[in-house]
Amino acid sequence: MAVAGKHFVDKHRVQLIQRVSNIAPILDELQDKEVIDQEQYDKIRALPTSQDRMRELYSGPLKASAACKDVFYESLLANEKFLVEDLSKK
């Protein structure tokens, strides 16, 4: 998942913030795998746009560790497969 020393979710941060639209199931998985807790989940879900939700994820849970990024990446593969494939080509 690391590309040239940089994790996929870091390397493609801007594109992911702009292009991930199917955020609800990703948040569900992150909560289920204990990357985010109920409070973070509720706070992120309350934000008005997908971009705001993605920015909040990046400013909090995705800063925590590579393991959190790995869970996020796996969820992206499951829920935003074509986006991940598109970004992987870049």
From TrEMBL:
Keywords: Cytoplasm, Immunity, Inflammatory response, Innate immunity. Its main location: cytoplasm. Coiled coil: none annotated. Residues 1-90 form the CARD domain. InterPro entries: CARD, CARD8/ASC/NALP1_CARD, DEATH-like_dom_sf, NLRP_Inflammasome. PANTHER family: APOPTOSIS-ASSOCIATED SPECK-LIKE PROTEIN CONTAINING A CARD, NACHT, LRR AND PYD DOMAINS-CONTAINING PROTEIN 1. This is CARD domain-containing protein. It comes from Astatotilapia calliptera.
